Amino acid sequence: MNHQLCRVVEKSPCGRYIRYSDMLGGGAYKEVYIGYDRVEEIDIVWNQIVLSEEDEALKNPEKLFSEAIMLKSLDHERVMKCFSYWFDSKSKTLNMITELFPSGSLKKYLSKYDNGTDVDLASIKNWGRQILGGLSFLHSQSPKIIHPYIKCDNLFVDSGGNQVTLGDFGLAVRLMEGNFMKDKEAKGTPEFMAPEF
Q: How many angstroms separate the CA atoms of 145 and 76, rounded?
């Protein structure tokens, strides 16, 4: 990325990470920006979740940081890496620094093709094996980690399109033996949700 053309709008408290004004995407709760790690000298993703004063998450810091804490504890090539996270109490934002996938989500990557029909079967099989490898790793943790819904929006592609990585763990949970979602609220896209949800 040409950093000469980007405007720095924010720095992490330690000064290591900088956020540019360029937005990569977002959703109902999260805004995603391009950023830079000044120590490793690599592009990163700066995820920002803005909370209101009334937000229940502010009363439960453990819940607020659950995705970041979980991602930082995991080390697998098929699981998105989280490098750092912090809460800015002044602006009421949770900031999470994750790795950047230049091709974006699998959905974005496939949009380059004519409705995905030009994607060869070998690539689809390769991606499927990688997704299952990531899920197997998550399910082997103690307690098990269940990714709530696997869909092309939550799978991220390397620049060559050969590797996919599981991301967007915002609703993932660690399941204690026999504890299936007793106190969790089912959120997400039902047709992509794990049966446990």
A: 13
